[in-house]
Write a structure and sequence with these properties.
- By secondary structure, the chain is mainly α.
- The protein has a two-stranded antiparallel sheet.
- The chain contains 9 helices and 2 strands; from the N terminus they run αβαβααααααα.
- Helix 8 packs antiparallel against helix 9.
- The longest helix has 19 residues.
- It starts with a helix and ends with a helix.
């Protein structure tokens, strides 16, 4: 009887955790080295379904909404770009896309500026190396 209660409780706890994990921010990132950044930027929820890469742009207005929308539509590009606001040290972000996975991008003028510069240059057909260099020139602290 005791074993049944323990096993049942354990199963219920694991099931609840598996259900709540994506809501708690516990998605995994596919790290496909050499397979392209587009695949590396995709998240997979605990149930195996494709999850959102960014917050919904429609909850924002103005330039912030434009930046979130660009991030949503171009995750592979933003995954290739470094953010120079200091969030890599303060929040553990690894690239500009990470700023748009949560609320950080909505309150940081540097992140918004970087994303909108990337948008303009991307629309002009600039390659990622030129976009990366322009962001570094405009936003890196050692200018």
């Amino acid at each position: 009887m005791r074993r049944t209660i323990i096993l049942g409780s354990s199963f219920a706890a694991i099931t609840a955790l598996a259900y709540l994990w994506p809501m708690l921010g516990g998605s995994s990132v596919n790290s496909a080295r050499g397979a392209g950044r587009a695949e590396a930027a995709e998240t997979v929820a605990a149930d195996g379904t494709q999850g959102r890469l960014t917050l919904d742009p429609n909850q924002f207005v103005g330039p912030v909404k434009e930046a979130y929308k660009f991030a949503e539509q171009n995750p592979a590009l933003l995954a290739e770009l470094h953010c120079y606001c200091g969030c890599d040290k303060a929040e553990g972000h690894q690239n500009l896309l990470d700023c748009y996975r949560g609320m950080h991008g909505s309150s940081c003028e540097i992140c918004t500026g970087e994303a909108l510069l990337a948008k303009r240059m991307s629309e002009q057909g600039s390659p990622v190396d030129q976009i990366r260099d322009a962001i570094r020139r405009n936003f890196a602290q050692d200018n």
